[in-house]
Automatic annotation (TrEMBL):
Domain of life: Eukaryota
Name of the featured protein: Taspase, threonine aspartase, 1
Region (Disordered): 1-36, 210-229
Catalytic residue list: T234 (nucleophile)
GO BP field: protein maturation; proteolysis
GO-annotated molecular function: threonine-type endopeptidase activity
InterPro entries membership: Ntn_hydrolases_N, Peptidase_T2, Taspase1
One Pfam family it belongs to: Asparaginase_2
One GO cellular component, as annotated: cytosol
Residues at the site labelled Cleavage: D233, T234
Polar residues compositional bias, start-end: 18-28
Family: Belongs to the Ntn-hydrolase family.
Lineage: Eukaryota, Metazoa, Chordata, Craniata, Vertebrata
Organism field: Gadus morhua (Atlantic cod)
């Protein structure tokens, strides 16, 4: 496995006091000094999009990934399950003006921000999703609330609760369930507005150049617009908690200059994220979060395909085969010039070599990322780590984006006071 990283066990550090609504509970647990220290398990892997990450902004991309990992780990250390931790990571990613999710997302053709997000719980297999939602600062919170409400059972008169809402209906449902709206002018940033103006000018120029004599010029111009450094797509996170439960989430502002009402892979079931605890037929718990060109990821259902592939013995080879055969060389994308996407994945299982113990159990987590875009920014951290690690993965020199793959990852051995597993 390339770039193998082993996370060394150490005593948990107190959570940082960064301001966030997800971190103000259970703070007393970090201050106990008269009790035996309790082993805490858990691991988080996040990404800030598959696309192109310029060297000039590398520090900012890494910093937001680091903060997202810290948010999730704070929740894990406080005893939260994977679902709550993965949502906390996504809120941090959405709040950054440097990511294409939540605040600062790409603007559509009408100059408006419409976001997609979804979340999946590997324990219950419940799923929540929103598409083309406007005026909500953290779309992942709406997806999370949809999932939570669905877990409560049927509505009045035996109605089935929704798991996927779009547009105005999603916005109104969110507000009715206590999620505050955000004015449109606060959703956009100077960066996203500047990118919108540049892209609009490019489109106008492309329209003028689109003549019978130059049929390819508009296509090339459009490709440059959609895949530029300002058009990084979906952000996401995957988590395994101290009980061995997995969860996954994604959030996106979608492609730059998209048509109003367009819904990308971040909202589609089996395309943006996937999480599934181990069971009799699946020896591994798996979690996946995707990024890239939404249409490519939707037509291949890449998140679900990668989860299935990870049940093979060799996770590295399984992911490589899935990305090559089910994505880049997929018959569903045979007409595409370039197939652009990326994934982060993890799988975990009980460490069979460890002697059984009622007080302490161990899990082995394998985590990987792969992309066919020029780069992908990732961050990862275990609950035993004092700080997160970040990395901007890039295609090998000479590799052609959309036709080549980069794949890296590592392993982490986790201990916890609770038994690992579903």
């Amino acid at each position: 496995m390339e770039d193998l990283i082993t996370c060394v066990e150490e005593q948990p550090q107190p959570p940082s006091s960064l301001p966030n609504s997800w971190t103000n509970q259970h703070s007393d647990s970090a201050q106990r000094t008269d009790e035996e220290p309790k082993a805490v398990g858990g691991f988080v892997l996040v990404h800030a999009g598959a696309g192109y990450h310029s060297e000039s902004k590398a520090k900012e991309y890494k910093h937001v990934c680091k903060r997202a990992c810290q948010r999730a780990v704070e929740r894990l250390r406080a005893g939260a399950l994977a679902m709550e931790a993965v949502a906390a990571a996504l809120v941090e990613l959405e709040d950054s003006p440097f990511t294409n999710a939540g605040m600062g997302s790409n603007l559509n053709l009408s100059g408006e921000i419409e976001c997609d997000a979804s979340i999946m719980d590997g324990k219950s297999l419940h799923y929540g999703s929103v598409g083309a939602i406007r005026g909500i600062k953290n779309p992942v919170l709406v997806a999370h609330r949809l999932l939570s409400e669905a877990q409560k059972g049927k509505l009045s008169a035996g109605r089935i609760p929704p798991c996927f809402l779009v547009g105005r209906g999603a916005h109104d449902w969110a507000v009715a369930h206590g999620i505050p709206p955000c004015p449109a002018e606060k959703m956009a940033t100077k960066f996203s507005l500047s990118a919108y103006k540049r892209n609009k000018r490019k489109m106008e120029i492309a329209e003028k150049m689109d003549t019978p004599e130059n049929p390819m010029k508009r296509r090339r111009q459009s490709s440059e617009t959609e895949n530029g450094s300002e058009c990084l797509d979906t952000v996401g996170a995957i988590v395994v908690d101290q009980e061995g439960n997995v969860a996954s989430a994604v959030s996106s502002g979608g492609l730059a200059m998209k048509h109003p009402g367009r819904v990308g892979q971040a909202a589609h079931y089996g395309c943006g994220c996937w999480a599934q605890n181990s069971c009799n037929s699946n020896p591994y718990s798996t979690a996946v979060s995707t990024s890239g060109c939404g249409e490519h990821l939707i037509r291949t259902m890449l998140a679900r395909e990668c989860s299935v592939a990870l049940q093979a013995e060799d996770a590295h080879q399984a992911l490589l085969d899935a990305m090559q055969n089910q994505f880049i060389s997929s018959p569903f994308l045979a007409s595409e010039d370039r197939v652009l996407g990326g994934v982060i994945v993890l799988r975990c299982c009980r460490c069979e070599e460890d002697p059984p113990s009622q007080d302490l159990q161990a899990s082995l987590v394998e985590f990987l990322w792969s992309h066919s875009t020029e780069s992908m920014c990732v961050g990862y951290m275990s609950a035993q780590d004092s700080r997160a690690k970040t990395h901007i993965s890039r295609l090998p020199p000479g590799a052609v984006p959309g036709h080549s793959l980069a794949i890296e990852g590592g392993v982490c051995r986790l201990t916890s006071g609770a038994q690992a597993g579903p």
